[in-house]
Amino acid sequence: MAKAKGERFAFLDVVRGLAVIWMIQVHVTNVVLDPSLRIGWFFDVLNISNGFVAPTFIFCAGAGLWIALSRKGEAYRTFGSDLFVYLRRLSYILVWAYSLHAPFYSLDRLLIASADELLPWLQIDVLQTIVFSSLAALTVYLVIGDLRRTTWVYGVLALAIMCCTWATGVWPKESPFPLLPWSSYLFAGAFITGLFMQSNDKGRIARWMFWVGLIGPFVIFLSKNIGPAMPWDDTWWRTSPGLHLFRISGTLMLLGLLFTQEQRMRTSKLGTMLQTIGNESLFMYVGHLLFVYGSMQSVISSIYGSSTLVYGGVAVVWIIVTAAFVALMMIWHTLKSKRPDLAQRILIIQLAWMVISFIVLPADFSFSRMLGLD
Predict the structure, then answer these.
(1) For the whole prediction, is pTM greater than 0.90?
(2) What are the residue boundaries of the structural domains of the chain, listed by start?
């Protein structure tokens, strides 16, 4: 029997869970790997693999958006409580998106900051791209009103962004993940998920995803190296149709491969754990960033006497950090499942604490110094 159009497949959440785990590796490596080791074939291969993480994460957000529209799209079009619950969730993500990039967390400091000091606050990172792209995708659906037609519009938008940003330039500039072209991955995720979920033969679509993902990079780089000159050749590794399709190919291959293990992932301990990580990706994302880019180097330096490590040390730190935040995430997930009312109050207290702290903390406040790590 075909699955319901809005049902959530395990392999989609597993892919997001794997992306989160590899993302932790990316950030740990960026912070603590010895600079002298950032050369050679191994680092190059690692760096290329790391380049798939953010596109996959954003792609999965697009997949989740399409599934949400298939379940509650009609309710969203009434502009009732369901829509405002969804917008509230996006707002919460956006609060964290800008809080993570705050150059300082003090109103006193903000009032004396220069324009250059405030600039990092305005940059677009992964979470901002997900929120703003989701709002754009939601608007498209509300205007068109039909999810099947909207799905194809998402595909057209993804392709247009991939093909045109070499000419228009990335926007906004000086951002790690500018909305253009990175929003193309969310639209692509929504488009491909729509094709998959609306198909009567999902196995065929999954096989198509795997083989396109496997063969695509060979075709892309063959065209790049021996094909005719293209107007985006000079910006190929920054933004070009080939670059974006290359990144999406990796996601497609992984999705197609994991679909073959759908039933096993629904019941196995590893599969259910990865699904939970995928479902709680915001907790994992925010939590590990606060530690990795906050006090991690100070902690490592106090233990090892050095703030940089070789590959073996990086791997150990990655495993420890991942395990710690998975454990914390499971506690939070269990609390949400068993005591949703308490979890909701905790979120409200958290937001209130963030606002009050921003207002009352002095300009020279430092968590690391308070903990004796500086």
Answers:
(1) yes
(2) 1-49+267-338, 51-260
